Amino acid sequence: MLIAFSITPLGVGESVGDLVADAVRVVRESGLPNRTDAMFTTVEGEWDEVMAVVKRAVDTVAAQSPRVSLVLKADLRPGVTDALTAKVAHVEARLAEG
């Protein structure tokens, strides 16, 4: 499965980049395939392992912030692997066709 999520610390002032970096660090240290862009971090793996990473990332931010906003989007496709790169590669191949 793929889970795209965004964590926003609330009540800590205007600059939240350091806390967001702490959350992304948790994801990267998990060893699961992942990608971070300007809006979301996407993680690929089995349900329990991906959700555990999201929980750890939220807990890391919550330890430093009085309130946390979490947005999740999931793509559940049993038996599919490497969706993190394969989905983008498919679209890029179509674009290259003209």
TrEMBL record:
UniProt domain Thiamine-binding protein: residue ranges: 4-92
GO CC annotations, alphabetized: cytosol
Taxonomic superkingdom: Bacteria
Gene3D superfamilies the UniProt entry points to: 3.30.70.930
Family affiliation: Belongs to the UPF0045 family.
Stored PANTHER family: UPF0045 PROTEIN ECM15
The name this protein goes by in its record: Uncharacterized protein, MTH1187 family
